[in-house]
């Protein structure tokens, strides 16, 4: 009797395992959250030091066109104008997404609607391979192949937004493709069957039903691709030319936020204006990726498929 | 599936933990080396990428004879080197420039050890058709006043200036010697000798500058006022564009660190290794340059 009572009242092995598992999970989650908070806090405090400690105006930072944090201009104010980098970052990102989306969509439609399992089996590894190539390799190929070709065709030095776009196009293609495939596959089979039953052919089904239904997912895929392009540093840095100039064409050397960070961060001393200004660039990058994330969530909430 | 996720998370955490612990113990022992009596321990040298290959090679040789001393050499840039040695995070900060000329660094706290000299030469693409310029012409090119090689008697080819990253030691040295306070034209910037070499060799009309050890037959070094960029000309200051490679310590170097720095200054390093790696020995210099750029006879 007593034994049974004990057995019933004390915690079983399964319960203890449950507790253990739960506490490990909470610990991990806590650690990750703490990490994220630390990173956010660190970048934000460093990033706004340019404005609070060094008294650079935010507006001047966002609209100025001269970047020379080590020196001062004719009025004795430090020159930290990030506009050329912001503009270049956005142009490269948008152009790369514009070029990559049609290709990615085509591949996604082929893989989910047309090719069947055999074609998918072949294409899937190809796309995964593109993801697995390190960005420095893309940059190196860009520097040795893309830049000379652009130089031959368009003249100039070959470095610039166009070269950056071409390299990024290859890099965001797999991201957009695989996310698009997922969202196309999420379209319920009944939609296809209904469309075919109404007498629509395959193209009409794809165009009028599947793409329309999957549109929010496809948009999310494109935005994820853009976020990747926006944050890519190394490959872009190798082909963009790293000149803090307002881009006045697709083949003039320019500089993105990330490429500026990678080229200069080693030469600055913690706590000085040149270093703080770089943190401010990092803050812009962080805010932009938050923005991309919010857009993705918004789209997902508005347009999820109702089953 | 869930279990697998959990396991992989644990493995990840373990890896992160190990790395963190590694960092921690690394710092602890590099600090601890200062009070070790038998001159053993860890030395971490961080900073200039231009000096890195020499220090790495010398550290390798040094450790062969001193098994108890463990030397780690890292890049990161002169700014990193100076700020980390100032904070006491590392034992040695490598730098291409004088600590005095870097904002945010308190040079009085640091002790300078000059270990080598690096000469730099302007280089152009081979088909520019120019092999000598005057100092003022060079200045005009980099400030954007001269924009075509034909103004200097070369080919009718636009000049493409390739500069180095702002704040880099190489750029600071070049601007001190050539621009003398003038602002460089806005142009492309690259952050390594290797990339600059590749770009200049492949872009028609390109001009940049490189450390002597990166000069090869792919690019054409320019003479300035008919003086050729050679080691001998640097030693007498006939060639003006050169800088010291510094190894800074926070306060006087002690124990293992002192031994290593002494080794860097020894005949075997200066006579042999320094030359082999493309630097100029500090012992051969017939002049001396102070942190303000004033040159005096030794």
TrEMBL record, chain A:
Keyword DNA repair: no
Membrane topology according to the record: Multi-pass membrane protein
Gene Ontology BP annotations: phosphate ion transport
One MF term in the entry's GO annotations: phosphate transmembrane transporter activity
Pfam families: BPD_transp_1
PROSITE patterns reported in the protein's UniProt record: ABC_TM1
CDD domains noted in UniProt: TM_PBP2
Localisation: Cell membrane
Keyword Transport carried by entry: yes
A cellular component annotation (GO) from this entry: plasma membrane
Keywords: Cell membrane, Membrane, Phosphate transport, Transmembrane, Transmembrane helix, Transport
Domain named ABC transmembrane type-1: residues: 86-296
Described purpose of this protein according to its UniProt entry: Part of the binding-protein-dependent transport system for phosphate; probably responsible for the translocation of the substrate across the membrane.
Family of this protein: Belongs to the binding-protein-dependent transport system permease family. CysTW subfamily.
Protein name stated in the entry: Phosphate transport system permease protein
Automatic annotation (TrEMBL), chain B:
GO cellular component: plasma membrane
Boundaries of every PBP domain copy: 39-266
GO molecular function: phosphate ion binding
Family matches, as SUPFAM superfamilies: Periplasmic binding protein-like II
Keywords carried by this UniProt record: Cell membrane, Lipoprotein, Membrane, Palmitate, Phosphate transport, Signal, Transport
Homology family: Belongs to the PstS family.
Name of the protein described by the UniProt record: Phosphate-binding protein
Source organism of this protein record: Companilactobacillus mishanensis
């Amino acid at each position: 009797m007593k034994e049974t009572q004990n057995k019933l009242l004390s915690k079983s092995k399964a319960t203890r395992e449950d507790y253990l598992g739960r506490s490990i999970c909470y610990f991990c989650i806590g650690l990750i959250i703490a990490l994220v908070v630390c990173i956010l806090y660190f970048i934000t405090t460093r990033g706004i030091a340019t404005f609070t400690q060094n008294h650079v105006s935010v507006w001047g930072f966002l609209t100025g066109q001269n970047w020379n944090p080590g020196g001062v201009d004719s009025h004795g104010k430090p020159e930290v104008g990030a506009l050329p980098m912001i503009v270049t970052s956005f142009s490269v990102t948008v152009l790369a997404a514009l070029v990559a989306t049609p290709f990615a969509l085509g591949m996604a439609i082929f893989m989910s609607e047309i090719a069947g399992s055999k074609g998918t089996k072949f294409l899937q590894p190809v796309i995964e391979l593109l993801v697995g190539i390190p960005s420095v390799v893309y940059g190196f190929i860009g520097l040795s192949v893309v830049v000379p070709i652009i130089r031959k065709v368009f003249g100039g030095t070959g470095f610039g937004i166009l070269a950056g776009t071409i390299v990024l196009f290859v890099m965001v293609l797999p991201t957009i493709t695989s996310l698009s495939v997922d969202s196309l596959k999420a379209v319920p089979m009944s939609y296809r069957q209904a469309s075919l039953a109404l007498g629509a052919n395959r193209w009409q089904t794809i165009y009028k039903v599947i793409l329309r239904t999957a549109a929010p997912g496809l948009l999310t895929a494109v935005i994820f691709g853009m976020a990747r392009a926006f944050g890519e540093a190394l490959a872009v840095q190798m082909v963009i030319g790293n000149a803090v100039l307002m881009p006045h064409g697709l083949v003039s050397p320019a500089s993105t936020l990330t490429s500026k960070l990678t080229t200069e961060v080693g030469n600055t001393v913690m706590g000085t204006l040149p270093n703080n200004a770089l943190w401010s660039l990092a803050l812009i990058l962080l805010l932009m990726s938050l923005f991309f994330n919010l857009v993705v969530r918004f789209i997902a909430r508005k347009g999820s498929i109702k089953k | 599936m869930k279990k697998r996720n959990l396991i992989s998370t644990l493995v990840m955490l373990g890896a992160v933990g190990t790395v963190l612990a590694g960092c921690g113990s690394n710092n602890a022992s590099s600090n601890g080396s200062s009070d070790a009596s038998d001159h053993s321990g860890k030395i971490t040298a961080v900073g200039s990428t231009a000096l890195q290959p020499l220090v790495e090679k010398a550290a390798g040789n040094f450790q062969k004879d001193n098994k108890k001393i463990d030397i780690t050499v890292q890049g990161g840039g002169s700014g990193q080197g100076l700020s980390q040695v100032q904070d006491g995070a590392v034992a040695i900060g490598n730098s291409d420039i004088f600590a005095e000329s870097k904002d945010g660094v308190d040079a009085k706290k640091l002790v300078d050890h000059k270990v080598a000299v690096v000469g730099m030469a302007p280089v152009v693409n081979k088909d520019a058709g120019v092999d000598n310029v005057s100092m003022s012409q060079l200045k005009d090119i980099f400030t954007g006043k001269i924009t075509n090689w034909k103004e200097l008697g070369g080919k009718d080819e636009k000049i493409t200036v390739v500069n180095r990253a702002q704040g880099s030691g190489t750029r600071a040295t070049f601007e001190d010697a050539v621009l003398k306070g003038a602002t460089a034209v806005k142009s492309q910037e690259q952050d390594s000798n290797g990339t600059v070499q590749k770009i200049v060799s492949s872009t028609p009309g390109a001009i940049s500058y490189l450390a002597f050890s990166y000069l090869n037959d792919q690019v054409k070094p320019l003479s300035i006022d008919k003086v050729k960029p050679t080691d001998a000309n640097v030693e007498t200051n006939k060639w003006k564009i050169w800088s010291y490679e510094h190894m800074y310590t926070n306060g006087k170097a002690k124990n293992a660190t002192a031994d290593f720095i002494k080794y860097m200054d020894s005949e075997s390093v200066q006579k042999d290794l320094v030359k082999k790696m493309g630097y100029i020995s500090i012992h051969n210099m017939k002049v001396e340059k102070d942190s303000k750029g004033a040159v005096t006879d030794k």
